[in-house]
Amino acid sequence: MTSSRNSFNSKIGIILATAGSAVGLGNIWRFPYLVGNNGGAAFLLIYIACIFLLGIPGMIAEFIVGRYGKANAVKAYQNFSGSKAWSLVGALGVLTSIIILGFYAVVAGWCIQFLYASIVGELQGNVYVIQDYFALISANPFLSVFNALLVLLLTHIVITRGVRRGIERASKIFMPILLVLLVILVVASISLPDSMKGVDFLFNPDFSTVNGNTILEALGQAFFSLSLGTACLCTYASYFKPSVSLLKTASQTALIDTIIALLAGLIIFPAAFSVGVDAGSGPSLVFITIPNVFQQAFSAVPLVGRLMSILFYLLLILAALTSTISMHEIGTAFFHEQFRWSRQRGAMFETLICAVLAVVSALSVGACPNLKVMGMSAMNFFDSLTAQTLLPLGALLTFFLVGWFASRKVVEQEFIGGSPLLKKIFPVFLFVVRYACPLSILLIFLHQLEVI
Ligand code: PHE
């Protein structure tokens, strides 16, 4: 079966597809609202530390499992460890990715609605009008369910067209355009009156707001944004060729991911402070802030503003899709290979489970506020369960596996791949994966459980 698996056919394809998975609503929707909820710059600093100190080693660890294991997440963990027990970590990844895809599709669906609204010109008016519009569409059961299911359908179509053609081609075209558009929007947002207060909020840290929860949220967001801890990177790495440098791929992806998140912050906070939107508005923050940038910064040339708005939502949806595709691929590869179903059938099963979760999530934040789990809306529950528990747990177990239980020779060979420079770096990597990373995650968990 292994020899018939697809593989990414170019280095740039690999970095773009991995970055395509990483860059998505995590950067442009989730990151800014968490920065806003957690007081700004101090959260940002902790987040960046998590990306570079824990995220990059974590990505490499997952890549190692996937490229050596050459199979779906569950089988890859088993092949790599030589034991069935470790395949549970892969299974945990499949489960986590299904839950994330369920609520992620709802947010991507809101983006579709905003795209539609910018095309037909519904996003006009001051910040209160936009706030009402968001409240209206997220509470409308038909619209929010329909859009979320549309996202899953689009994802399903790309996935059933195959790994290489679908994913690689998509990421190659959209990512660079998105980057250029974000830079234009940063300039537009910073040119708004009073925007510097937003820049200050993002870059001038106030550590008095930091507590254990802030750190866990930053850690969860770093993992969410890098697609780490869901076995997504493991699944993608199973399609990597042996010549690919894992350190380089991980560092480049983390860098692109962080740059995009920062650009998103530099669009949203200056605009929010300029028009008087509360930075701690939560999940609606991006949706109620960005339309104002288009209207105000381009008020002299409204047509340009409108066209930019259409392009922005279009690209945001595409960025979300490269992420939903990567999440979907985890389950599809698993159902297809593990149960010996056709890829079509595996994909269909994945789409159906996610559709159920998407409907529950969509209704829980709108039409059915009684859909609560542990006092939170089902959607918030899925979000915090995955980001704050399951992702760090998946990464922690992967660190244990790669650092302590796996054959050192295999880990070394996957990491070094014949490069003398990487040979020198390997002991540092091993130290970090064995001690620094698992200990940090454990400490954060124990603190959260009030053990320490
Ligand atoms: N990293 C993606 C984003 O930032 C979300 C994601 C999480 C994708 C987990 C795959 C797996 O939007």
| Elements, N to C (H/E) | HHHHHHHHHHHHHHHEEHHH
Secondary structural class: mainly alpha
What's the rounded overall pLDDT mean?
92
In quaternary terms, these chains amount to single chain
What is the count of helical runs?
A: 18
List segments where confidence is low: pLDDT < 50 over at least 5 consecutive residues: none
The number of distinct β-strands equals 2
Helix content: over 70%
Q: What would you report as the Rg, rounded to the nearest angstrom?
A: 21 Å
Amino-to-carboxy terminus distance = 48 Å
- Which small compounds were modeled alongside the protein? phenylalanine
Shape: globular
Strand arrangement within the widest β-sheet reads 1-2
Please state roughly what percent of the residues sit in beta strands, choosing from under 5%, 5-15%, 15-25%, 25-35%, 35-45% or over 45%.
under 5%
Q: Which sheet architecture does the biggest sheet show?
A: 2 strands, antiparallel
Please describe the structure with a list of short key phrases separated by commas or semicolons.
452 residues, mainly alpha, 2 strands, globular, binds phenylalanine
